[in-house]
Amino acid sequence: MTEFVLGDSQKADLDAIDLRLLNLLARDARASQRKIARELSISAPTVGERIARLEREGVIRGYRAEVDWGALGFPMQVFASIVAASNQATVLKSLHEIREVEQVSVVTGSMDLLARLRVRDSTHLRKVLLEEIWEIPGVVRVETLVSLAETRHKDYLQGMIGVLQRDHDS
């Protein structure tokens, strides 16, 4: 079943230790609980309990490897803005099921959906568009934007944790 995140989660009640814990995990998600415990001056079982609570509450949604898609043969990042005639949920679900589609967002403005794709080259992109995206019932218009360059991965998580810590301290 496809999970759609609507951005309406309840704000978690985090204390300063939770925020420092998240900051450490953002730097190194593979750090041992003992190492984190030393950094936070708390016990390893307490770290484990806090991590488990943050996972239960949905604050921590998973642990993933960061992949260089170019090294795997998918260097081209493409954004597809999509207008759907009706039943956006069905179009959204169909887009989400396409392997090359990394993420789909429901957006405001002149389009309904914005999809981020990874493809090998323009031939691969054409195949995905013609054989998959344009075949989805309800898709009226698709405009593609090919990324010519992108910045290095920004450590967004640590930056936002810094904002939360600043807000918590004020």
- The helix tally amounts to 6
Number of beta-strand segments: 4
List low-confidence stretches: none
Helix-strand string: HHHEHEEHEH
* Radius of gyration over C-alpha positions, nearest whole angstrom: 20 Å
| Distance separating the two termini | 41 Å
Shape: elongated
Largest sheet: 4 strands, antiparallel
Strand content: 15-25%
Q: Helicity range of the residues?
A: 25-40%
Q: From the coordinates shown, what is the CATH architecture of the largest domain?
A: 2-Layer Sandwich
CATH homologous superfamily classification of the largest domain: Lrp/AsnC effector binding domain/regulation of amino acid metabolism (RAM) domain
Average pLDDT metric: 90
Structural write-up:
Residues 14-75 form the HTH asnC-type domain. InterPro entries: ArsR-like_HTH, AsnC-type_HTH_dom, Dimeric_a/b-barrel, Tscrpt_reg_AsnC-like, Tscrpt_reg_AsnC/Lrp_C, WH-like_DNA-bd_sf, WH_DNA-bd_sf. With 170 residues, the chain is of the alpha+beta class. The chain folds into two domains: 16-65, Orthogonal Bundle (Arc Repressor Mutant, subunit A); 70-146, Alpha-Beta Plaits. 39% of the residues lie in helices and 18% in strands. It is built from six helices and four strands. A four-stranded antiparallel β-sheet has the order 2-3-1-4. The N and C termini lie far apart (41 Å). The model has no long low-confidence stretch (mean pLDDT 90).
